[in-house]
Structure formats: structure tokens, C-alpha cells
Design a protein that fits this description.
Layout (H helix, E strand, L loop, with lengths): L7 H7 L3 H7 L15 H8 L3 H14 L1
Length: 65
């Protein structure tokens, strides 16, 4: 399960297709140098993204794998 404490890099390495979800929310995470350390919750707070919606989409993608 993807949570707000999961790092962006963890999600991208486990689910490469998650990049499309991040892009949907305006996050170009695949080339970001801090993706290894930045949690999803932190990115949402910084960029004003609805964390519940993002987590819902990421978890749906993870379950569909």
C-alpha cells in the first residue's frame, strides 16, 4: 500500500507506470533528484496537491499490477 510516507522513488521503482499518475497531478518525478528522499505527503504539501486523490490513484495502480 502506498501511503503519504512512501517516497516517490519507492513508488516509481516498484510501479514504473506510476509516473503517469504523478504527471496527472503536475509532478514530473521521474527526473527529480530528491525523489529518492521526498515522501508523497511532502510533495503534496509543497505543491498543493490533493493527497487523498493522489494516493487513491496510486493505490489503484498498485492493485491493478
Amino acid at each position: 500500500m502506498v501511503t503519504e510516507n512512501t517516497t516517490i522513488e519507492e513508488v516509481l521503482s516498484k510501479y514504473p507506470r506510476a509516473n503517469k499518475v504523478f504527471l496527472k497531478y503536475g509532478l514530473d518525478c521521474s527526473g527529480c533528484q530528491i525523489a529518492e528522499y521526498e515522501s508523497i505527503g511532502h510533495a503534496c504539501r509543497i505543491y498543493g496537491i490533493d493527497i487523498k486523490a493522489l494516493l487513491k490513484d496510486l493505490n489503484e495502480l498498485a492493485q491493478a499490477k
